[in-house]
Amino acid sequence: MKPPALAITTGEPAGVGPELCAKLASRPWPARLVLIGDRGLLAERARMTGTAISLRHYLPGDAAQVGVLDVLHVPLAHSCQPGQLSVANAGYVLKTLDLAIDGCLSGEFAAMVTAPVQKSVINDAGIVFSGHTEYLAERTGTPRVVMMLAGEYGMGDAHPWMRVALATTHLPLKSVSAVLTAEALTRTIRILHADLRDKFGLPLPRILVAGLNPHAGEAGHMGREEIEVIEPVLAELRREGMDLIGPLPADTLFTPRQLARGDAVLAMYHDQGLPVLKFATFGGGINVTLGLPIIRTSVDHGTALDLAGTGRADGGSLEAAIHCALGMSATRANPNLDSSLS
After folding, report:
1. Eight-class DSSP state of 271
2. 296 annotated ligand-binding residue
3. What gap in Å lies between CA 38 and CA 34, rounded to an integer?
């Protein structure tokens, strides 16, 4: 049986993405890694960072070869130096994403893994771009997606995985309550539950749901969103058979004892859940887009323009994203397989 082919988009050319992708050649993988980007750029960053690399032109029918990275070549629009952004390359970045998305939709690729992009330079080029998540949703015709970050945490020999999904994403804090409707929350939980089951192999996932307000509203004295929105939604979904715990006060939810009770946490807003996760997992954490018809994972860090070309950037998050994508694609191919990221 042929190993799966994974599309790896190389990200913002002025950032650390190209060199992190080049470093993937230093170890064997149980998959065919297809880098989507400029071949010359990858070779140059490998040379600058002292990375031994062997690249070949990607042909769909070729067999995987240990120590060799396939490249689906997309030429840069403008020459690029580490750390120096150019709006001329905004279209190049989106082209790499389009090729990965199309390949996943057609079945050519089992999953896509994305290196970081610089949202600001794409917008400066006159292209409205909120981020990978929104772009993937639009390109695949997906009405609603859910952002989930994950990573190992803990001390000693025990390294459980923390998964944190978001009910709302990139919003001003003052807008969260208005956006957190019963309909929106219901759809988010349905997506989270379905993908934990179908892509992570958890037959009956247990989800810990945070409250919105301090102390989960303190019985309405610190806010009524828990009483009026969150609790009724959880009650309805429990009647459908979902295992949901909450709403829980966020200040005590992220303790090892509480986290051990569930398979994932649903935070109500971005900075309720992600600072905790990134503190516990930074360097090895990943981003997963749930609800898509394809599998997409990503690093949990940015373009690190100040590190580009130095060889000091840590590739742990990219490697973890690849491992997760492999596990998810294996579970999708064999629904009885548990890909719990361990």
Report:
1. H
2. yes
3. 12
Q: Find, among 323, 313, 315, the residue nearest to 288 by Cα.
A: 323
270 annotated ligand binder: yes
Question: pTM of the full predicted structure?
Answer: 0.91
The response to whether 193 counts as a known ligand-binding position is: no
Each domain of the chain, given as residue ranges in start order, spans 1-142+292-342, 146-289
Which residues are within 8 A (CB) of 265 and not within 5 positions of it... i.e. 6 or more apart?
A: 162, 163, 164, 165, 207, 208, 209, 210, 253, 254, 259, 273
Are 1-142+292-342 and 146-289 equal in CATH topology? Answer: yes
Task: Consult the annotation and say whether 287 binds a ligand.
Answer: yes
89 is in an annotated binding site: no
- pLDDT of residue 341 exceeding 60: no
Determine the topology of domain 146-289 in CATH: Isopropylmalate Dehydrogenase (3.40.718)
| CATH code given to domain 1-142+292-342 | 3.40.718.10
pLDDT at site 120: 94
